Amino acid sequence: MELEFAGVKFKNPFVVASSPLTSKIELLKMAEDHGAAAVSTKLTFIKQPFYGKLRMYNSPKEASIICYDRRLDLEEGLELVRQAKEQTELKIFVNITSDSGDLESWQRLAREHEEAGADLIEANLICPNVGLATKSIKGADAVSSTEHGGAVTGQDPVLVKQVVSALKAVVKIPVVAKLTPNVTDIAVIARACQEAGADGVCLAGGQSSLPPVDIYHEGRPCYELLNGASHGSLGGPATKLISFSQVAQVAMKTDLPIIGGGGLGNVEDAIMMMMWGATLVTYCTSIMWYGWEVVRRTVAGIEKYMQDMGYSDYRQIIGKSLQYLRPSSELEAVPGYPRIAPDKCNGCGRCALPGHCQAITIIDHKAVVQAEKCLGCGICKQLCTRKAISF
Ligand SMILES: Cc1cc2nc3c(=O)[nH]c(=O)nc-3n(C[C@H](O)[C@H](O)[C@H](O)COP(=O)(O)O)c2cc1C
């Protein structure tokens, strides 16, 4: 089932996020073979400020952190786009940033990629590995004149507006801004994008983060094969619920279509992200951890879900959950308490563990509830491995 984003048609909502997954033509072909509608190419500079190598922290089921990576220089980025347009039907977002802070270099990157065949520009205002890491460690004054790319620009609504306006002035293809979440109010930045004429925004993880440290070896940070540590960009499951919130805020406060990502790993995640307001969804860590089958399963699963649920258009699910959002003061608590199914309860006592709860006791190997003491947190139901608790 097709859908439209920023005036461009996509055969489904799946975008492979800018990363090592999108740095070579062979990998873009894998993306296409497994059903992706689009890719965002690896971050491209005119000339990258330093040549990193792929180093990251990985804790499957929890999070990835990327603090160091090889990006593309302009010629490499252009060649990748040309190859992709010749050899695939993918829609190509080009993920670009300028570290020099001047708008002309942003414009040059966008113009030349448009000429090479890019379908959309994705202005990278998210990457923390250029100036934001310096700012986080040494302070704003230490950010040098060649460290303006990515998140350090993305934190300032004035600069964001200037960049988006400058890009809109020189290209005809849509301009999407990929925004850092490391701001006080994401909607302020998204509105600056809208005022500057952006055609959409991408909100996809990237919270500034540090890895765990080895407490038995001098507190050494748990990055593999790397000396030193830097604040990096968070991906993987840990970011998903934060990403839902960011997407919903922007969906409610702007008219911009949204690419939503950060922590997505399966079909249900994609649909939930769309229900919180995303038109397209973007995946990275889950494909890096579990391979290209993630794409095939997710694309097939989304299409099956749409059919099974009787939806004929993605617009029927995009933003569906926003209707439930209201200030805490306007929420209404529904009265209730846990009920125990005695045939399922084996008296293990897990449900009686929560530190704040005095409502459940184990009597004769069965959980017994004092309804009037129940605070209504719902934790006992989640702790019960035998599904013996309902509300
Ligand atoms: C190894 C790695 C490299 C990345 N490189 C880029 C990049 O070049 N440009 C960019 O905008 N985002 C980059 N990202 C961020 C991802 O595109 C994505 O927004 C983020 O990881 C959150 O999504 P996920 O939870 O699905 O990984 C990178 C992420 C990883 C893990």
TrEMBL record:
Its EC number is 1.3.1.1. GO terms for biological process: thymine catabolic process; uracil catabolic process. It is an enzyme of class 1 (oxidoreductase). GO terms for cellular component: cytoplasm. It holds the Pfam family DHO_dh. Keywords: Oxidoreductase. Residues 336-364, 365-391 form the 4Fe-4S ferredoxin-type domain. It comes from the Bacteria. The keyword Glycoprotein does not apply. It catalyses: 5,6-dihydrouracil + NAD(+) = uracil + NADH + H(+); 5,6-dihydrothymine + NAD(+) = thymine + NADH + H(+). GO terms for molecular function: dihydropyrimidine dehydrogenase (NAD+) activity; NADP binding; uracil binding. Belongs to the dihydropyrimidine dehydrogenase family. Heterotetramer of 2 PreA and 2 PreT subunits. Involved in pyrimidine base degradation. Catalyzes physiologically the reduction of uracil to 5,6-dihydrouracil (DHU) by using NADH as a specific cosubstrate. It also catalyzes the reverse reaction and the reduction of thymine to 5,6-dihydrothymine (DHT). This is dihydrouracil dehydrogenase (NAD(+)). The lineage of its organism: Bacteria, Bacillati, Bacillota, Clostridia, Neomoorellales.
